[in-house]
Amino acid sequence: MSPWKAARPDDLVSAIDTPALVLDLDAFERNLQRMADALKGHPVQLRAHAKSHKCPEIARRQIALGAVGLCCQKVSEAAVFVDAGIDDVLLTNQVVGTTKLMHLAQLARRARMGVLVDDPLQVMALADVARSQGVSIDVYVEIDVGGRRCGVMPGAAAARLARLIADHAPLRFAGLQCYHGPAQHKRTLAEREQAIAQASDAARLSRSLIEAEGLKVERITGAGTGTFLLERDSGVFNEIQAGSYIFMDRDYGDNQLGAEDVRFEHALFVRTAVLSRTQPTRAVLDAGLKASSIDSGMPTIWQRPEFKYVKAADDHGVLEVPSTSSLALGDALMLVPGHCDPTVNLYDELVCIRGDRVEAIWPIAARGALL
Questions:
Q1: Which residue in 144, 171, 196, 369 has its CB near the most CB atoms, within 10 A?
Q2: Is the pTM above the cut of 0.85?
Q3: Phi/psi zone of residue 112: left (φ > 0), alpha (ψ -120 to 50 degrees), beta?
Q4: In a 10 Å sphere around its CB, with 0-12 CB exposed, 13-18 middle and 19+ buried, how is residue 369 labelled?
């Protein structure tokens, strides 16, 4: 953690030290409201994914606008939000190992906790720990709907696992996890429609076989920022797990939107400054790999299309600039990160701005919560 703050409330934006993670509150609040409006009147609820922001203040604002709870990826991440008063958390991940399972059971004493499984051994281990600790845990069967990561195949395998959960109190079979991660970044609407149609078919088949076992499928949850309208209108999903919509990033910005898609705005930026300017077509910034994730590609320069971020080292970012550019040492720019989630995890706090002033500093309290 840095011994100095990048900014304090009421500072001018021009005085924010660099590199700093900056949240434009006006754009952020419009994004929050657009999601709430998009779900209004539909039998679909938002369970906002906190892995994107790792910030309790943002979680509280999402819940105030109707989110039923949060998703987290890690038990330690969930613990941060339970400590902050969030009482309904779904771990959209498998939890393996006695230590982690004990932590999960302890959280289940204080909040409604859910978790995913894709293997009978996970069910047995969860049941043993829940029984020993006297807690109930919601358990969802994860189905591989196209992500080729975790999850059982749709249909009979999902039904067998659901029955096993139901037969092992104090576990409670809560539904199906049907998240298609790669679909979020398929560039054309037609590609996204095809992927989510297949995911919906897989969810529908699995639901019918589970219901034939006499079990209720309370929730079918999934979706993300890139496809949530498709799941909303599928007639199958009743919960969505969008997270990046509050921030957006360069990768999501590359998606081609359909006429009905919600236009979320870029609200998250890395403020950076020029620290070297030795060549007429090159400028070097103080924001490199440690300031902005490039796993989904390089950041772009906000409102400066003539500049191109071409290379990142640990603490340097190299720009190609026109030879006629007047960009000088100390000049500040805003980067739009390629991928918001891992970029947020690089910082201790969000510098929240409105207009030309810093309005607030929000801790990224679940930063580094990997256990």
A1: 196
A2: yes
A3: beta
A4: buried
